[in-house]
Write a structure and sequence with these properties.
Endonuclease Iii, domain 2; 0% strand; 2 domains
Length: 202
């Protein structure tokens, strides 16, 4: 059975609402990126926090230009000056976060290839030791960069909004959302992508 059929079969068995949504939108693939992209993607996640997609792309392009040939590496990031990063349009805090990330990866305190082998909870714990990487950023990194299939983010307002809309709820508690999302395991990432997609069509 291919992945699409497996995910749909699981949703059909466990949650008719999610099954109906996923059948309508189609299953969006979850693809891991190459390990060489891990540091790049985590920098993008930090810079893009609380920004629109277009603003994040614009600032990140300027960030790439701080590196020779646009090649972002932990070693080079660790040696950047806070002022240089601040001048591309980030906050002082994000400038410090990027440098801290570069230092932790380049000196071995954070090995992203090792993180890739950890279980989800362990990986989130390791990532959130980095300044500026909270649970939401870590969860998005696991979903979109490492291609983890069973991640749900309680801190994502879009997911909460989509659950309220599609499950006809008013103000669900975290426990209520946990009970709903538990039905989607081990394919919660696919469910999240379906929920986000449902907002695009609203």
């Amino acid at each position: 059975m291919d992945k699409t059929k497996a995910v749909l079969a699981h949703f059909r068995k466990t949650d008719p609402v999610m099954f109906s949504m996923a059948k309508n939108t189609g299953i969006i693939p979850v693809q891991p990126q190459k390990p060489s992209q891990y540091f790049y993607s985590l920098c993008y996640a930090i810079i893009g926090q609380q920004l629109s997609g277009s603003a994040a792309k614009s600032i990140f392009t300027r960030f790439e230009n701080l590196f020779p040939g646009g090649k972002i590496t932990p070693e080079r990031a660790a040696k950047l000056k806070e002022k240089s990063i601040r001048e591309i349009g980030t906050s002082w805090a994000k400038a410090r976060y990027i440098i801290d990330l570069g230092q932790k990866v380049s000196n071995g305190d954070l090995n992203l290839k090792t993180v890739a082998k950890m279980k989800n909870a362990e990986a989130i714990e390791a990532l959130t030791r980095v300044k500026g990487v909270g649970p939401w950023t870590a969860e998005m990194f696991l979903m979109f960069t490492m291609g983890r299939e069973d991640i749900f983010s309680h801190g994502d307002l879009g997911l909460r909004k989509a659950i309220i809309k599609n499950y006809s709820l008013k103000s669900p508690s975290k426990e209520k959302i946990e009970r709903i999302s538990a039905k989607w395991s081990p394919y919660r990432t696919y469910a999240c992508r379906t929920l986000w997609k449902s907002l695009d069509s609203s």
